[in-house]
């Protein structure tokens, strides 16, 4: 067991803000994780599990132990003529897993190419992109129950997936640590290219009958063209969720701003593009010192280098307040604030 003291967390968060952890340890299996959880040095400390650190903002030092997830391994647990159930260790990088599946010809997650982070975080917030979410291809997962060290299997229904939501962000928060996740992928996949920019990108490339590799390549290109690479410019992807509002409020905003970008979101509800609202509130490309709002995607807050977590958090508060004032819409942060 290798336990570091007063550890630097900057390498482990994609905002690249400075923060320290009282203790830091890495686990590569359920057995190692149990040993750490039961160790005298760590057992009574507050715990924080970190995968890729791509959806968290440290606004303070962590007064406990940071557990770095390094559970590797990808294997097939079931195969039929049409489907394969493929399981990945929760510490595998998400895009590495996607690339593996695309390479094998297994379809269903190609639209989620290049999402930062590790596999274990995917079900936590039901990651999604370009018209597909984890819940669409999820089969099951196994998680370690912290209270007694038991491994518990969860079905999709038990994960209670919603838009960037799950059981693990709500009732299950801090009670389980995800060990592996299994997805049901298709050997003869149906492609989801209806999402505007994918179709456009495929047409631009002159591709009429795309393969999952083509869709993955198109998504990678689109993401690279508008989302900053966290290795170059600190960020955590979308900082806010797209807000779901009543159809009545959406209609009122639309009357004043006919260009409002919105999508139906079930009975009497409409989802608004937060990026559009933030851009209209004048924030796109805003920079003050080392923090800013990205110039190509207003949903993304960035650290130009040397910013503190507090400064990024303060900017997010100003953005929230101005959108509330201009449109009467309450944005919600998508990133976990520590
Ligand atoms: N828009 C603007 N201005 C902006 C940004 C967006 O007007 O600065 C408009 C766009 O023109 C478009 C609409 O908003 O009409 C939607 O924009 P986009 O397709 O870029 O997607 P998004 O809703 O801003 C969501 C996810 C992203 C995901 C994309 C693509 C959330 C919070 N974000 O962003 O996920 O990649 O769709 O599917 O749902 C993430 O969660 O970290 C993430 C990057």
What's the layout of helices and strands?
Blueprint: E1 3-8, E2 20-27, H1 30-38, E3 47-50, E4 56-57, E5 62-69, E6 74-79, E7 83-89, H2 94-104, H3 121-124, E8 128-129, E9 132-133, E10 138-145, E11 151-155, H4 156-159, E12 176-186, H5 196-204, H6 212-226, E13 234-238, E14 244-246, H7 247-256, E15 262-264, E16 269-272, H8 274-280, E17 287-288, E18 291-293, E19 300-303, H9 309-327, E20 336-337
Parallel strand pairs: 2-5, 3-5, 4-20
Antiparallel strand pairs: 1-2, 6-7, 7-12, 8-9, 10-11, 10-12, 13-19, 14-16, 15-16, 17-18, 18-19
Helix pairs in contact: 5-6
The structure holds uridine-diphosphate-2(N-acetylglucosaminyl) butyric acid.
Keywords:
alpha+beta, 338 residues, Uridine Diphospho-n-acetylenolpyruvylglucosamine Reductase, domain 1, Uridine Diphospho-n-acetylenolpyruvylglucosamine Reductase, domain 2, Uridine Diphospho-n-acetylenolpyruvylglucosamine Reductase, domain 3, globular
Task: Provide the CATH topology of the largest domain.
Answer: Uridine Diphospho-n-acetylenolpyruvylglucosamine Reductase, domain 3
Helix content range: 25-40%
The largest beta-sheet arranges its strands as 6-7-12-10-11
Report the β-strand fraction as a percent range: 25-35%
CATH architecture identity of the largest domain: 2-Layer Sandwich
Task: Tell how many strands the DSSP assignment holds.
Answer: 20
Identify the quaternary structure here: single chain
Tell me the domain tally.
3
Euclidean distance between termini CA atoms: 26 Å
Order of helices and strands: EEHEEEEEHHEEEEHEHHEEHEEHEEEHE
CATH class of the largest domain: Alpha Beta
Helical element count?
9
Mean pLDDT: 96
């Amino acid at each position: 067991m290798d336990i570091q003291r007063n550890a630097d967390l900057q390498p482990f968060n994609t905002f690249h803000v400075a923060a320290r952890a009282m203790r830091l340890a890495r686990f590569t299996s359920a057995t190692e994780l149990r040993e750490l959880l039961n160790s005298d040095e760590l057992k009574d400390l507050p715990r924080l599990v970190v995968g890729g650190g791509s959806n968290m903002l440290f606004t303070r030092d962590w007064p406990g132990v940071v557990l770095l997830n390094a559970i590797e391994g990808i294997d097939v647990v079931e195969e039929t003529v049409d489907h394969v159930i493929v399981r990945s260790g929760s510490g595998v990088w998400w895009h590495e897993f996607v690339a593996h599946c695309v390479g094998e010809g297994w379809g269903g997650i190609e639209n989620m190419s290049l999402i930062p982070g590790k596999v274990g975080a995917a079900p936590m917030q039901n990651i999604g992109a370009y018209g597909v979410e984890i819940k669409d291809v999820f089969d099951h997962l196994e998680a370690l129950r912290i209270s007694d060290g038991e491994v518990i299997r969860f079905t999709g229904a038990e994960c209670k997936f919603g838009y960037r939501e799950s059981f693990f962000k709500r009732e299950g928060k801090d009670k389980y640590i995800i060990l592996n996740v299994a997805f049901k992928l298709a050997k003869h996949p149906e492609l989801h290219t209806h999402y505007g920019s994918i179709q456009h990108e495929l047409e631009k490339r002159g591709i009429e009958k795309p393969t999952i590799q083509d869709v993955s390549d198109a998504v990678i290109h689109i993401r690279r063209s508008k989302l900053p690479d966290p290795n170059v410019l600190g960020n955590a992807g979308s900082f806010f969720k797209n807000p779901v509002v009543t159809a009545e409020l959406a209609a009122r905003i639309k009357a004043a701003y006919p260009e409002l970008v919105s999508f139906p979101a079930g009975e009497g509800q409409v989802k608004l593009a937060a990026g559009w609202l933030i851009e209209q509130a004048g924030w796109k490309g805003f920079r003050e010192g080392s923090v800013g709002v990205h110039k190509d995607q207003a949903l993304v807050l960035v650290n130009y280098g040397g910013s503190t977590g507090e400064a990024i958090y303060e900017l997010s508060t100003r953005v929230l307040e101005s959108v509330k004032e201009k449109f009467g819409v309450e944005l919600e942060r998508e990133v976990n604030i520590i």
